[in-house]
Structure formats: C-alpha cells, structure tokens
Design a protein that fits this description.
Blueprint: E1 2-7, H1 15-29, E2 33-38, H2 50-56, H3 64-74, E3 78-84, H4 92-101, E4 108-109, E5 117-118, E6 124-130, H5 135-141, H6 143-156, E7 162-166, H7 177-196, H8 198-207, H9 209-218
Parallel strand pairs: 1-2, 1-3, 3-6, 6-7
Antiparallel strand pairs: 4-5
C-alpha cells in the first residue's frame, strides 16, 4: 500500500510537522510506502491563476505543477492531510492546493446537461487537524459540524473519496510535551494500522461504528 502525506506548515519544527513525520515513520515501520509532500518546503503556488481559471472553464491544459500533484495522488492508495486549524478550517496554502489540484476532469466530471461523476472513489483520505483549543470548546461552538460539512462532505465526499478517519490534535499550545508526544504516538500508530491493514480497519469500523466517532475528541491536539 502507498500513502501520500501532505503537510502544510511553514515551521519544520512545528507540532504539525512532527505529526506528519511521526505518522509517516509509523507507516514505514509497518512496511508501507510513504511519499511526503511538504507544500511550504516545496514552494507550491496556491494561487488560482489565469491558467487555472481557463482549465475550470474547459479551456487549455492543466499547469505542470498541478499535473505533478495529481500524479502523486494517483500513485497513492491513501492520502493523509496534516494541517493546523486556522479560522475553523485549513491554511490558505493547503486550501489553494486543493483548489488547484482537485479540479474538474480529474477529481470529478461535470458538464451542463450531463450526470455529475465523482472520480476519486479509489482514494481513502485521512485528516489530522492540529488545534489550539480543546475538544469541549469545539463541541460547544459547533466546530466539528462545520468541519464535517465544509471539508469531509464538501471536499472529500464531493469527489467520491472515502473518509478513512478524522483525528483532531487538541490543546497544542497548552498540553505538556510528554502528553502530546504520547498522544501523537498513539495517533500515528492508529492511522498507520488503518493504512497498512485497510481490510482489518474496515472490519473494525463495521463492528464498532462508535470507534470512528470517538476519533475527533479522544485524540487531542
């Protein structure tokens, strides 16, 4: 199984980057192949350019950097997005990556008068948002519901991909380093097991549906 880990954070020493590295290492330890896309280090351009607009309008060809990212995803069975929570969502860099890469003709197909076709049904996506606030605050203010609507449904399910897991890392600025280290270790091993042994993970989710719903508040940031 091959996994693409996409991380969006400018500081290589950040907790977000640490989570991405820890998860990648855990997958490798189980014998999986991992490719890491560090969008900031690779200087990915998130701006929706004239070429992107033309492509959206059905004119021209995809820019080379977009094709390169699509090829990366095409080689993967699982996609893991690791990012800090900014304003109830993801950083502009990652959002721009999705805006430019998940385009019509590749992620989905739609033309007026024809059926909408979801094209990423082969892909399983795992989300790891890193947040400064606690789980109780997210629950109270409806952040989980907003996240589910905007990102899980509005992006992943819209393109036909399978949502493998959403695991929030809460209280990233206030928990002790030892507590965070332990939680990240557990998080990394849990997601690695889902990626390396997808049939086992799917069976576990079918037999205990509540386990997936616990992923959000239990694994904190």
């Amino acid at each position: 199984m091959t996994t693409l880990v996409v991380v969006s954070h400018s500081d290589p020493q950040s907790l977000t980057q640490h989570v991405a590295r820890s998860t990648s290492d855990a997958i490798r330890n189980l014998g999986g192949d991992v490719d890491i896309a560090d969008l900031h280090a690779e200087n990915f351009d998130p701006r929706f350019s004239k070429a992107d607009v033309n492509l959206f309008r059905g004119k021209g060809t995809p820019p080379a950097d977009v094709v390169a990212e699509q090829d990366r995803i095409d080689r993967a069975d699982d996609l893991i997005l690791v990012f800090p929570m900014y304003w109830w969502s993801m950083p502009a860099l990652l959002k721009g990556w999705i805006d430019r890469v998940f385009v019509s003709g590749w992620a989905y197909e739609f033309t007026p008068g024809s059926e909408f076709v979801k094209k990423l049904d082969r892909l399983t996506v795992h989300l790891i948002p890193v947040a400064g606030d606690d789980a109780e605050s997210f629950e109270r203010h409806g952040v989980y519901e907003a996240f589910q609507t905007q990102i899980e449904r509005g992006i992943i399910e819209y393109c036909g991909a399978t949502l493998g897991s959403t695991t929030f890392v809460h209280e990233s600025d206030t928990k002790s380093p030892d507590t965070l280290a332990a939680e990240i270790q557990d998080l990394s091993e849990s997601i690695a097991a889902r990626v390396a042994y997808p049939a086992t993970a799917a069976s576990r989710r079918r037999s205990d549906i509540g386990q997936l719903t616990l992923d959000r508040p239990v694994t904190a940031q």
